[in-house]
Amino acid sequence: MDNFAKQSWAGLRILLAFTVLLGVLYPLAVWGVSRLPGLHARAEARDTALVAVPREGERYFAPRPSAATLPASGGSNKGELNEDYTRVVAERRAAVAHREGVGEDRVPQDAVTASASGLDPHISPEYAALQVPRVARASGLPVEQVRALVAAHTHGTFTTTVNVTALNRAIDAAGR
Amino acid sequence: MSPLVAGLVQVGIVFAALAVAYRPLGDHMARVFRAESHTKLEKAVYRFARIDPDAEQKWSTYAYGVLGFSFAGIVVLYLVQRVQSVLPFDFGRGNVQPGMAFNTAVSFVTNTNWQSYVPEAVLGHAVQMIGLTVQNFVSAAVGLAVATALVRGFTRSRTDRLGNFWVDLTRGTVRILLPIAFVGAIVLIAFGVTMSLKSGVDVDGQIVANAPVASQEAIKELGTNGGGVLNANSAHPFENPGEWTNLIEIFLILLVPVSLTRTFGRLVGDRKQGYVLLGVMGVIWTAMLAVIWTAEANGLRPLEGKELRFGVPGSAIFADATTGTSTGAVNSLHDSYTGLGGGAALLNMLFGEMTPGGVGTGLYSILVMAVIAMFLAGLMVGRTPEYLGKKLGRKEVTAAAVSILAMPAVLLAGAGVAAVLPSTRAALNNPGAHGLTEILYAYASASNNNGSAFAGITVTNDWFQSSLGLCMLFGRFVPIIAVLALAGSLAAQRKVPVTAGTLPTTGPLFASLLTGAVVLVAALTFVPALALGPIAEALQ
């Protein structure tokens, strides 16, 4: 027991030294570097299209469903055999089909499933294409122009996705 | 690119990056733990802590060092959370409740990083930095130190000295983890990971919580810790904004555990001894990836709980990396995985975290399993088993068995009690077999110091906070004490010469034996429990 107490005191002292080094100096050094021009705006997520939040109005593209309670992030954590949740997904599918005026079989997976973060900024090109006619109608923009904006915001090396946050801002800019 | 090709390319990129880093980092770590001299920074730390860095310790003193340091860590981290309201950057989130503060303190000190709290609502930046970030480093360095001590047990002879815990701890921190984490954090910021002292950022009229993410993200992955700065962990776009950050984070998770096999080979003076361990880890890891990936690609709702930018392959690779090491960070929600995919992630932990396992913990766990494998081989041929020139007698095999059996004992006891408690029903997020898997996964994660979760389960009642806390403690420290005892008795022996009767431990025979031991021990222990949870769900 003496030995344990002695080692605990030594442990406490070295922990204090580490707290200064790793808990104060290290994060502040990283933060300091993140103030450099070029990194600063990213570090603050300023003007960010990293995350999506739903926007009111028919003239915007809808992001994926979210199970998050802002400002916190999070997902549904529902298993695939959860019957209650299967009903929720079916209701979402019907709602999307109704909103876009298409058959339920044309509604893609990402339109009815919640992402892990609840802030997923992306939708699939299929889901974007599905929304183009409605967005064009509600925003008064020509379908061709909306389609071009979608194409301009479609990216990805391994997975092709459409950034819905940036896309909606482009819709705003075009409508002005 | 089709998803299959895209996934294979991503696996290829991660493997290639690991291959490039393997030799330089492995050799660097071997030099660090063999070095005679101390750097200026280290000398300053030793002077401040009043530690004699040149005093070598017996195994028991080394173990008291680990326990004393961890005990001090738990006390300090508990207190820091309990007085959060007087610290800066707390954003009015208040003092953390006692049960939650205990669970979180144990969780981060044991390198588990199980999170019963929602970070955005509970923790401010000060606790994240001076509390959690510090333990992200030092809990990983403890694993490195214990692994180093065990290797010294094999390489030294006729001594009762295993090195100095404080020196190993400090060197692992300042010469290995700190420089890589610093560079990693800057690279992550360049690719879009955030680093802000503000509490949140306005996005199209709504506030989304922000934090000093990058500095903790880097060490969270590198130290195989896994505790998210934000609730969605590495699924959150601020922690993991794109396809490339995803690959960088997977690389950081695997970097040290994989490279340590090279370090091991260098330290024992035969690099092939390290390669064979890497081969076993790699075969099991890749097989488990195939299972998770296939299962998820063929699920009913493959995108539920997954981020579109990662897709199924990018999520499956991350899930395999995080559960095959003791990391526990997630970029997708394992609770929404299929029966087979989620079951495979669970099985990865039930292997005992050695494919490739956590920083240091993976190496010492697979070495313990190698002792068991050689013991089994010895029984088959009726000869006293040897490994790396040391005889494996009653003492050594007993220590190895205690180390291996601690995790299943606390896991099954905890999960068994939780399953019959009336209060558990309200804690579950899914009915049926999937609900049982939520319980099993929680106790597997705690007992293996992984930290990932079937996160739908609500673990904030007193039973879960305290029982999971105890599982983390026993799952961490019983094996460590047993491993150090094993190291002590190995170091005391003299080396036995290689003879015609010695089973070589660098060839395919040994690799098969070791793979068999890893799989069989887990299968014999857990098949009944798995049959009621993930297997039952997969068959529905």
Topology of helices and strands:
The complex is a heterodimer of chains A (176) and B (540).
Chain A (H helix, E strand, L loop, with lengths): L1 H33 L5 H4 L39 H18 L21 E2 L1 H15 L3 H10 L1 E2 L5 E3 H12 L1
Helix pairs in contact in A: 4-5
Chain B lengths: L2 H32 L5 H10 L9 H24 L15 H12 L9 H4 L2 H31 L9 H26 L9 E4 L2 E4 L3 H10 L20 H25 L3 H27 L13 H14 L14 H12 L10 H21 L4 E2 L2 E2 L2 H27 L3 H4 L4 H16 L14 H31 L15 H32 L1
Antiparallel strand pairs in B: 1-2, 3-4
Helix pairs in contact in B: 1-7, 1-9, 1-11, 2-7, 3-4, 3-6, 3-17, 4-17, 6-7, 6-8, 6-13, 6-17, 7-8, 8-9, 9-10, 9-11, 10-11, 10-12, 10-18, 11-12, 12-16, 12-18, 13-14, 13-18, 14-16, 14-17, 16-17, 16-18
Task: Provide a descriptive summary of the structure in words.
The complex is a heterodimer of chains A (176) and B (540). With 176 residues, chain A is mainly alpha-helical. Chain A folds into 2 domains: 2-43; 83-175, no CATH class. Chain A contains 6 helices and 3 strands, in the order H-H-H-E-H-H-E-E-H. Chain A has helices spanning 2-34, 40-43, 83-100, 125-139, 143-152, 164-175, and strands at residues 122-123, 154-155, 161-163. In chain A, helix 4 packs across helix 5. The longest helix of chain A has 33 residues, at 2-34. The N and C termini of chain A lie far apart (75 Å). Chain B is globular. Chain B has 18 helices and 4 strands. Chain B is mainly alpha-helical and 540 residues long. In chain B, 66% of the residues lie in helices and 2% in strands. Chain B folds into 2 domains: 3-269, no CATH class; 360-530, no CATH class. In chain B, helix 1 (3-34) packs antiparallel against helix 7, helix 6 runs parallel beside helix 17 (462-492) and helix 7 crosses helix 8 (213-222). Chain B starts with a helix and ends with a helix. Chain B has a two-stranded antiparallel sheet with strand order 1-2. In chain B, strands 3-4 form a two-stranded antiparallel ribbon. The chains are: A mainly alpha (176), B mainly alpha (540). The interface between A and B is large, with 78 and 113 residues.
